[in-house]
Amino acid sequence: MTSVKNFRVAAAAMADALGRGAFAFTDDYSVFDWGKMPDEIPDKGASLCTMGAFNFELLEDAGVPTHYRGVVVDGEEQSLDAALADGHAPREMAIDLTQVPDLPFEAGSYDYDAYHGAAGSNYLIPLEIVFRNRVPVGSSLRKRSAPTDHGLDRDSWPDEPVDLPETVVEFSTKYEEQDRYLSRAEADEIAGQASIGALADRAREVNRIVTEQAAEAGLTNQDGKIECLYVDGEIRVADVVGTFDESRFAYGGQQLSKEVIRQYHKRTQPEWVEAVSAAKERAKAEGVADWKSLCEHQPEPLDESVIEVARDMYCAGTNAYVGREVFDAPSLDDAMDAVRSL
Question: Which of 10, 161, 255, 306 has the fewest CB atoms within 10 Å, i.e. the most exposed one?
C-alpha cells in the first residue's frame, strides 16, 4: 500500500516471472512525505487513474514498455476508451507486478546489497527518476544548486518559474523514509543491474510524450518523475506517470498540481511544516528511519471550501488533459481562478 493507492494482487511476482495485480486509487492525498492526510479530495483517485491510464496508453503507442495492462471496471480489464465510452471514470488500473524485496535498515543505513541479493533479475528499481523542464517556485532544485549549474546566466533564483535550457534528469531514493537526491555514482549502485543511462533516457522519453500532450491542452509540463521495473534486461515504466501528483503542470502561469496543496499548507499551517522539517533533520542526525515519530505537530484538516477547489482542480485538469468531459467539473479557466483565490 502507498499513501494514495492500494495494491490488489491476483498473482504474485516470482523470481522467473512477473505477477498480475491492480492499483486501487483512493481519494487520499499526501504532502511533505507525511502519508495519508486528515482529509480526502473527492474524485481525486478517479482523476489519477484516468490520467495515468491515458498516459500509459500514449507510451505504449509510442513503443515505450510499461507495466500497464488496462483499467478495471466491474472486475474486467479493458482499455481506457472502452471504460469512458461506458460512462465509467475508472479507479483501478491493472498492472504487471515485479518483485519488491525488503530494504533492511541497520546501524543508520540502508542495505541495498541485501535488496538486490533477494531481487535477482526481476525487481522494482529502488529509485525515482526526476525530469525537470522548468524550475517552479517550491522546487527543491533551488536549494540544491545555483542557476549557473544548469546553463542559466544568473547568480540566484528569481521569485518566478525559470525555464531550463535543457531537461535536467536527477535520481532520488524511493524506499527510504526520507527521500534524498543522489549523485550519479550513488544512483548507479542503488539501481543494481539497471543502467543509469538507460533510466535517464527512459525519463526523457516519458517527459517528451507528456510534455507534448500537455501542450495540446494548453498546459506546461514543468517537472515530473517516473519509477521503473527491471526484467529480462529491459527497463519498463512502472507506478503511474504524468498525473497531477507525479508531475507539476502549470496553466496560464498558475500551478496545476499537488504543489497547490503543498503551498497552501506552507501558508496556513507553517508550524506543522516546520515541525516536519525539524523531525527529518533530527532523524537524519540520530540515524533514525521513522522521522514521523519525532514530529511534534500533526496536520490539521482543510476547510471544505479548499477541498472543493482542490477537487475541481484535479477534475477540470484531467478533462482538459485527456480531451473529454470525464468529470462534472467547471471549465479549467474557472477552476484555476478558484485556485488563485486560495
Answer: 10
